[in-house]
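Dear colleague,

Following up on Tuesday's group meeting, I ran the structure prediction for the two-component complex that the binding team flagged. I've pasted the input sequences exactly as they went in, so you can double-check that nothing got truncated or mislabelled along the way. The structure tokens for the whole assembly follow below. Feel free to forward this to whoever is handling the docking comparison.

Inputs:
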Amino acid sequence: GQQVQQSPTSLVLQEGENAELQCNFSTSLNSMQWFYQRPGGSLISVFYNPSGTKQSGRLTSTTVIKERRSSLHISSSQITDSGTYLCAMADSGYNKLTFGKGTVLLVSP
Amino acid sequence: GPKVLQIPSHQIIDMGQMVTLNCDPVSNHLYFYWYKQILGQQMEFLVNFYNGKVMEKSKLFKDQFSVERPDGSYFTLKIQPTALEDSAVYFCASSLSGTNTEVFFGKGTRLTVV
């Protein structure tokens, strides 16, 4: 089955530094999303980005279909950015998303 | 943005009892999903549902699990009987179409089986 590899597993930054999170897929994709999961567990959609580049505030996502990868760039990180970032993809069939194991981000003062 | 509501946020139940998790999907969405996340582990697909039918299910979707959406009301996940290994956070999700579209997730129901 399809696999989703996220890197790094964890990342520690000082406030104001930038972060680059990567997601690699083992199969071609027709849908992918980035999520932020709070320490309490709730899931927040960050980007739906099956191809190309999208930006929202300090967050930018770039998906390159041919290379089967997507990245999430966080600029000028803030303490409130701390949490787990998950990527997920669907290759076929009814939006059955396969999730990565996540990148745990800790932003310290 | 569109919201998927899950009720309750937490539930504790005795092993062997039945539990029903409720989900209020985005109002015009047609496809519905359940995902399971054991504490500290990966989010995993359980089942998807369209037009009154299960379209796909994973190996995690045991015989004790069932889903339905009677008369366009709540989309439910029923577990009967529950087992200790069913303890997890269950996320409901919905989407407008079945492919190439954003999937919207609820905040999850934390189920603890004791």
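Chain A touches chain B through 24 residues (CB under 8 Å).

Cheers,
M.
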